[in-house]
Specification:
mainly alpha, 65 residues, rod-shaped, 2 helices, 0% strand
């Protein structure tokens, strides 16, 4: 393997690592947002806590559609 091929391979790996870090960062941000939104829903609509998810979805669809 030539020096140029090694540099190209290293650059490719650095790019893949950066993309993987970005995916993790985006996933963590989405998880945080979903947790916060769920907490707001429970605060505003306390009966949602013990409700079946399908029923909760139906109620929200009826109310907001």
């Amino acid at each position: 393997m030539t020096e140029d091929e090694k540099k190209l391979l290293q650059a490719k790996h650095r790019l893949e690592e950066a993309e993987a870090r970005d995916r993790v960062k985006e996933r963590k941000a989405r998880t945080r947002r979903l947790i916060q939104e769920g907490a707001i829903l429970e605060k505003v609509f306390p009966s949602a806590t013990g409700m079946d998810l399908t029923k909760l979805e139906d109620i929200l669809r009826e109310h907001f559609s």
